[in-house]
């Protein structure tokens, strides 16, 4: 079965280490035949949230916002790549994602966290779990944490640790299970509201 998966990434920093994690996840999803859409906050750059997508009249939203809305609406699931900023998620990530709401409903999300330390950004992942749940995305139970990102992945996103490649397989198996299950429910029964 083939899935459409949107990968969200939110760092605006000039020396973005987390882009390696995003590239790694995109490559892993491509190897599993996902249609991957990369939603990079720096590239979409909607500015600080003033008006959500749903607050625009039909056909009135900026073109890039409309484009991403369509990708989110037609996605089977999401991978959210988050670095840890002050024990929380990046402001760019929360700002990008908060432009949407109903478009996410009843599609699963997998959390990928990273940091330069050995904790792998798990404190951000815990914050992100509550954020995504509030936006209508059930999160899978596994968190894919990448410690010491500067050493663990190459600039191109290639793994320098065999354990990462093994762990990512289990993480994506779980995500795909949820993508398939929730897709079937949406097709057979629609949304509960």
TrEMBL record:
Residue ranges annotated for the NADPH-dependent FMN reductase-like domain, each copy included: 4-148
Pfam families hit by this protein: FMN_red
Record Gene3D superfamilies: 3.40.50.360
GO MF assignments: FMN binding; oxidoreductase activity
Entry-linked InterPro entries: Flavoprotein-like_sf, FMN_Rdtase-like_dom, NAD(P)H-dep_reductase
GO cellular component: cytosol
Coiled-coil regions listed: none
PANTHER family in alphabetical order: CHROMATE REDUCTASE, NAD(P)H-DEPENDENT FMN REDUCTASE LOT6
Protein name as catalogued: NADPH-dependent FMN reductase
Organism encoding this protein: Nostoc commune NIES-4072
């Amino acid at each position: 079965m083939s899935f459409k998966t949107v990968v969200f990434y939110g760092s605006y920093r000039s020396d973005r280490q987390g882009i390696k994690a995003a590239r790694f996840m995109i490559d892993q999803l491509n190897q599993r035949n996902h249609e991957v859409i990369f939603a990079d906050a720096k590239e979409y750059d909607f500015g600080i949230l003033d008006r959500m997508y749903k607050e625009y009249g039909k056909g009135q939203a900026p073109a890039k916002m409309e484009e991403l809305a369509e990708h989110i609406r037609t996605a089977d699931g999401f991978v959210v790549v988050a670095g840890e900023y002050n024990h929380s998620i990046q402001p760019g990530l929360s700002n990008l994602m908060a432009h949407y709401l109903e478009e996410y409903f009843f599609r699963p999300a997998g959390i990928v966290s990273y940091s330069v330390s050995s904790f792998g950004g798990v404190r951000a992942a815990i914050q992100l779990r509550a954020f995504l749940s509030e936006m209508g995305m059930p999160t899978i139970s596994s968190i894919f944490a990448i410690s010491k990102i500067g050493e663990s992945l190459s600039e191109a996103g290639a793994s320098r640790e065999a354990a990462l490649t093994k762990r990512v397989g289990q993480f994506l198996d779980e995500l795909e299970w949820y993508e398939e299950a929730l897709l079937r429910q949406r097709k057979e029964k629609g949304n509960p509201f």
